[in-house]
Amino acid sequence: KIPSVRSVKAGRPAEKASPDFVKRDYSVGLIVVVDDHEGLMAYLKHPLHVQFVEKYKPHIDFDTVRVFDFVDGK
C-alpha cells in the first residue's frame, strides 16, 4: 500500500541454517525492498509506516533492533 515499496518479506529464523556465521538471536526478520534512497525516505515518512511504528513502538526493544540498509549489487 506504500507506493515506493516493491516487496516485503518476513519470517522467523530458519530451523536448519548455514552452520557458520548465522545469527539466530532474533524473533522475526523483515525485508522491505525499495528502489533507491528516495524510495526509502518516502517509505519511512509514509503515514501507514508512521502509524505502524507508533502502534507497535511499545512492544519493540530498540536496543536490540538491527537495521541494515544496503544497495543491490547488480
In short:
This protein has two helices and two strands; from the N terminus they run ββαα. By secondary structure, it is of the alpha+beta class.
* Main sheet characteristics: 2 strands, antiparallel
Question: What is Rg?
Answer: 14 Å
Q: DSSP strand (E) fraction?
A: 15-25%
**Annotation, overall tally of beta strands:** 2
Plain-language structure description:
The longest helix is centred in the last third of the chain and has 10 residues, at 47-56. By secondary structure, this protein is α+β, with helices and mostly antiparallel strands. The protein is 26% helix and 18% strand. It is built from 2 helices and 2 strands; from the N terminus they run ββαα. It is globular.
Topology:
Elements lengths: L4 E7 L17 E6 L2 H9 L1 H10 L18
Antiparallel strand pairs: 1-2
